[in-house]
Amino acid sequence: MDTNILVQAIISGLLMGGIYALVAVSLNLIFGVMKIINFAHGAFMMLGMYVTYWVSVFLDIHPYLSLLLSMSVLFVVGFLIQYGLINRIIEAPEHNQLLLTLGVALFLENLALFLWTPNYRMIKVTTFAGAVHVGKVMFSTPRMIAFGAALTMTLLLYLFLTKTDSGKAIRAISQDREGAHVIGINLKMIYSLAFGIGSACVAAAGTMITPFFYITPTVGLVFVITAFVIVVLGGLGSFWGAFFGALIVGVAESLGEVLLSGSLKQVPIYSIFILTLLFRPKGLFGKRHV
Amino acid sequence: MFKKSIANSLFLWFGLILIVILLPFFLPPYFIHVLVMILFYAYLGTSWNILGGYAGQFSFGHAAFFGIGAYASTLAFVNWGISPWLGMILGGLLGMLLGLLIGSLCFHYGLRGPYFALATLAFSELLRLISLNLDLTGKAMGILIPLKGNAPFSFQHESKIFYYFVILLMFIGVLWITRCIDKGKFGDYFTAIREDEDSAEAIGVDTFAYKLLAILISGFLTALGGTFYAQYFLYIDPAITFGVGNSIEIFLRPIVGGMGTVYGPLIGASVLGPLGEVTRGLLGGYQGVHLMIYGAILVSVIIFLPNGIYGWLRSLKKKHRD
Amino acid sequence: MRFLKIENLSKSFGGLTAVNHVTFQVEQGEIMGLIGPNGSGKTTLFNLISGFLAPDKGNIYLGEKSLVGLRPHQICKRGIGRTFQIAKPFSHLSVMRNVRTAVFNWERTISGANRESEGLLKFVGLWSKRNESASSLTLMERKRLELARSLGTHPKFLLLDEVMAGLTPVEQQKMIELVKKIREGGITLIVIEHTMQIIMTLSDRIVVLCFGEIIAEGPPQAVAQDPNVIKSYLGEKYRFA
Predict the structure, then answer these.
(1) Do C90 and B196 touch (CB under 8 A)?
(2) Which pLDDT does position A34 carry in this prediction?
(3) Nearest CB neighbour to C149, from listed B189, B195, B203
(4) In the predicted model, is pLDDT for residue B4 greater than 80?
(5) CA–CA dist B35, B29 (Å, integer)
(6) Coil, helix or strand for A246?
């Protein structure tokens, strides 16, 4: 096996891992705060990609320029869904909330399929395209930019959670819901805020990958399942667990793609998932008792 | 007075049975198909309900059992000429073995609630990926079952009425099993486990053994449904059988109709079936457009009717009595 | 003779020692009171005995046989029943079926199980509610149901965890009568309670836990006057009988 291919695979894996990190970290935010397993997370990413696609096509601009728009749209969507729907069943058993988000995902994905057909779409970019070559290894420019953007956003999210009042309120709730309620934190608003932020982040991830990833209504499903694997692997509730778990999974997937054939690349991921659930449900860095 | 009401209800039952038996002979094939699909998903939902509704272990991966049943009987038929009826039993046994594998692993390590659900999803996805890459299962192309015309012993017929009666009998069988569970010792045990595993253990219920039993039964029955599907549509592939969409369609009926009840899945299937057909008819477009409506219904049911339609009807009856 | 022997039992969670080298024996037919300040390890001890937790060190003997390593349902079948601090009936089952679930340990047939459940429900005074949903019961009724359920498993030893909590004084009196009736039926009881008056009334013998260790053991009057016991309760609002 050519070491160059392996190195290339690891690099690609890390770059994609950065994207997974943003997706996972934002999923973790929602899970850590509301204990909701958000199946609609992938659908939101998909919507972010479509917002970017249509804006790019109609206004003939570079997809990166639609970043703020896609984030804003999905922030509102996420906020409203939490505020209007999920808030009503906060007290219900966990699997009801899972089913609710699943229902939302089903609705959104199939609405997209109905409106925009299952046809794969791609955005052709001319600026910020191409690749950088270091020796025999290729660093695709759009992937690097996506990686950088994802990393930046992850960092911003981290700073938000640790330095701002709202962020601290969110973390307070995730650690002790009743205590936070007692000291006057408006749970429902914070939940909606957290859901909105999580959705905006995953929309950003979607926007950043449009130059090199196909766009289709079902694209979210793969991402959301991978995100769950990552969050469980990293440890539910752990920010950095999700981050490093994402890099690990990105590399594992990439190596799987090279060493196994085509779609089998996901086999190692699902296997890791099952093994983690069975033997170390707390994950690598988990703080929460499962 | 007393005898009259018994006579009345016997008459009603007789009438109902007569209608159920004679109906398909007077309907055009499309409507028979709709009935078959309602009964089919009612069957699958009722099978799922044993594990998910009664024993309280929500499975997100029942497509795994479905697919194993479908591929087992199909491969046995296509490669070795074994009648799908026998293949169905074989598939059922494999489904049971799969249930044993998944159940022993998950329950031994104490996976509950959403974690168990996600684990079952992972298992069904693994099976989908394997069948997608195996020559034996035809990879992405799937397997076409050769047309045998009117061949009831090969589980095939040109008329849909044949399939109607097969699935009707299967459904009645599964309904009867569920009724026995609902009223008897298993019902007590499963409900206890579902509500409070610790309390159940404290009063002597071997929760591991009974959860395992639930998944064995559910897996077996669901696998049989897979064979039926294969023989009805005469084509299977990894996505149709092992796909997440299939798992969702399976548990959607019990949730909408009422989990942990005998008739919940039937009610759910009776509502979602026609609704799906009407939606597809009105909106045309692609095959899965009804899922959009299903998603909306799922959200509504979770918020407004958390006990499903059956639970809602029962609470109405209670309010009416008071 | 049947006895329950706890030998050198220890359990820690992370850095916190919940139960520390606890040794005592419960003789058949007695009511043993288990008291101690909050966090002294009483419920942990119950969890260890009934198999919900595995001890780090020590052993638990029922007669000659060790119970360590057995799962809770196995320990139940050996004859040790327990109730939980917060009584949680199976709300989707009727009162009758709640009890029946426990009775199926010993009865094979549905009719036999129904008969046995009838007897138990009458014993605890819930027969009139037998077809009600368990979720519609008052607190006192739930506790009666929990007792009936535990009794359905034919325990020789019954661990009662704060069965008086939340009851009015009148209800507490009734519960005391019920507990005494249970003992008269030949069942040995270990009772965790917070109210000293009740413990003094009920118990033949009292064991006092503090920070996971036994600091006193003996008849109620002796324990009430034990200086160590008084010291450990300083600052808590307890009134001695």
Answers:
(1) yes
(2) 74
(3) B203
(4) no
(5) 10
(6) helix
Q: Do C76 and B202 touch (CB under 8 A)?
A: yes
Alpha-carbon span B72 to A168, nearest angstrom: 54
Question: Torsion angle of alpha carbons C114, C116, C121, C122, nearest 10°?
Answer: 120
- Subunits in contact with chain B (3 or more CB pairs closer than 8 Å): A, C
What range defines the domain where residue B139 resides?
A: 29-244
Evaluate whether residue B53 is within a structural domain. yes
- Pure H helices in C125-186: 139-151, 169-184
Summarize pLDDT for B174-215 with one digit per residue, the tens: 999 999 999 989 999 999 999 999 999 999 999 999 999 999
Summarised one tens digit per residue, pLDDT across range C202-233 is 899 999 998 889 988 999 988 888 888 887 76
Alpha carbon of A99: minimum distance to chain B alpha carbons (Å): 7
Question: Coil, strand or helix: which one is C65?
Answer: strand
CB B174 within 8 A of CB B167: no
B126 and chain A: CB distance < 8 Å anywhere? yes
Nearest to A277 among B115, B288, B291 (CB): B115
Geometric angle at alpha carbon C127, from C126 and C131, rounded to 5°: 100
Check if the beta carbon of residue B65 is closer than 8 Å to that of residue B222: yes
Within 10 Å of residue A210's Cβ, how many Cβ atoms?
A: 27
CB-based contact, C194 to chain B, within 8 Å: no
Look up the pTM and report it.
Answer: 0.91
Q: Evaluate whether residue B152 is within a structural domain.
A: yes
Distance from the A145 Cα atom to the nearest Cα atom in chain B, whole angstroms: 31
Give residues 303 to 322 of B whose Cβ lies within 8 Å of A: 303, 306
Touching, B vs C (3+ Cβ pairs under 8 A): yes
Q: Which of C198, C142, C193 is nearest to C169 (CA)?
A: C198
Residue B249 domain flag: no
The Cα–Cα gap between A7 and A152 comes to: 24
Instruction: Return the number of CB contacts < 8 Å for B and C.
Output: 76
B197 touches chain C (CB under 8 A): no
Long-range contacts, B167-173 (Cβ 8 Å, 24+): B167/B36, B167/B39, B167/B40, B167/B43, B167/B228, B168/B20, B168/B39, B170/B43, B170/B224, B170/B225, B170/B228, B171/B39, B171/B42, B171/B43, B171/B46, B171/B266
Complex ipTM:
0.90
CA dihedral over A206, A208, A209, A210, signed as positive or negative: positive
Residue of chain B with shortest Cα separation from C87: B199
pLDDT digits (tens, 9 = 90+) for B258-269: 999 999 999 999
How many structural domains is chain B composed of? 1
Summarised one tens digit per residue, pLDDT across range A216-273 is 998 988 898 889 889 888 887 788 889 999 999 999 888 888 888 777 878 888 888 8
Contacts of C90 in chain B (CB under 8 A): 191-192, 195-196, 199
Confidence band for A289, pLDDT divided at 50, 70 and 90: very low
> Is B58 contained in some domain?
yes
Alpha carbons B63 and B60: distance in angstroms, whole number? 8
Of the candidate ranges A105-114, B279-288, C141-150, the one whose mean pLDDT is the lowest: B279-288
* B307 interfaces chain C, CB cutoff of 8 Å: no
Closest residue on chain A to B284 (Cα): A114
Pair of tokens at residue B143: 């397997």
Domains of chain C: 3-234 (3.40.50.300)
How many other CB atoms sit within 10 Å of the CB of residue B128? 26
Kindly list the residues from chain B whose CB atom is less than 8 angstroms away from the CB atom of residue A117. Answer: 286
Inspect the interface and report whether the beta carbons of B260 and C153 lie closer than 8 Å.
no
Residues of chain C positioned with their CB less than 8 A from the CB of B203:
73, 76, 81, 101-102, 105, 149-150, 152-153
* Position A290 confidence tier, pLDDT thresholds 50, 70, 90: very low
